[in-house]
Fold this protein.
Amino acid sequence: MTAARFTYPLDTLRQIALDLLRQAAAQGASACETDVSEGYGQTAVVRKGEVETIEYNRDKSIGVTAYLGRRKGFASTSDFSPKALTDTVAAAVSIARFTASDDCAGLAEAELMAREIHDLDLFHPWDLPIDEAIARARACEAAAFALDARIVNSEGAGVSTQQHQFVVANSNGFAAGYPTTRHYLSCAVIAEEGGSMQRDDWYAEARDRRDLPAGEAVGRYAGQRALARLRSRKLKTMKAPVLFEAPMAGGLLASFVSAVSGGSLYRKTSFLLDSLGKQVFSPLVQIKERPHLKKGMASAYFDDDGVATHPRDVVKDGVLQGYFLGAYSARKLGLRSTGNAGGSHNLILQSGELDLPGLLKKMGRGLFVTDLMGQGINMVTGDYSRGAAGYWVEGGVIRYPVEEITIAGNLRDMFKGIAAVGRDELTRGSRRCGSILVDSMTIAGN
């Protein structure tokens, strides 16, 4: 393993966090929590073989939340000097004095704190010389251009490596943290034929650089996707099945998570209010949360509140088993934290038996969506309307690419209308899923 190049040892961050808690108590805070972090990394982007961007980043931050009973104040700084730390605590305590009391404010319950440490294998630093990063990006982009003379332009290929470490501590006796890494490869190119141009891209991410695909593979796939979209046609308005390619299907999961997360629920801005224990999806849908996966992109053994995370079934046979709650939102709803302050942890949509060709065959006739545009989702009503591009399918096989269409429906109906989930699983961020077939949506075209 390459040696890390952090400014501070992790133990120093922990000591800073504990010092902040002591200072808060000395200044009259009844409780306090803090997050101390630092990170560094680099990104190299080339376009048409020339270096377009080289970016180095190194940052650090401290956030302090002080409580005076049920009154809360927050202050932050990027200055780790003793005076700055004292001033930040004083600012948080001062703000708390002037805020309104909130019965739901406060630390998570002490009994929920994570006490068991898990090694989740999240730290694999990559000491990548910038010349090598540039060469990798060039090779990635060159592989796309080498595919076909119709690949005529590029939006760039990039290689990024990021290292981060943090400590979360609070006055309930919790103090823990760990280092993590994230590495990326990406490429976006443009194909042209007969005066018509099409763009597509691909990227890969991993905790460990050894788990990344070769840059040339990323570039070739981006190029193949752009070429496949040439000679796109429009469609007539109709109702038909819609197959969401795995990267797009992840967006449906993201909408679900948003709808059953604490903030949306207690503000009553979700179309899935009071859905616990009710049928939300088709009976074939199983969604699991697995926060302790080794090298997982969203693995964590505690959440932003310090609450221990646990594997669980979120949806079983289409029935909602649990929300996504932090300590505050749980209190607002009269429930218990699910260890999701800060978001979900490795959400997995259980795959079915069909691969992508099998899903196309099952659909028979319909739209295969590979790109979505716009943000036309109303989380209060569930209404869904987005610009789309992809491929028209007849007889279970792709016939031609399509563009300039809109797909519309309601997420309630779409979730319950899921007819199949593919085994072409893809992990993007905190979600892993295959392609999703929805039995019917409105496709607006000519």
User: Anything to note?
Assistant: The chain has a mean pLDDT of 95. The first strand starts at residue 31 and ends at 47. The radius of gyration is 24 Å.
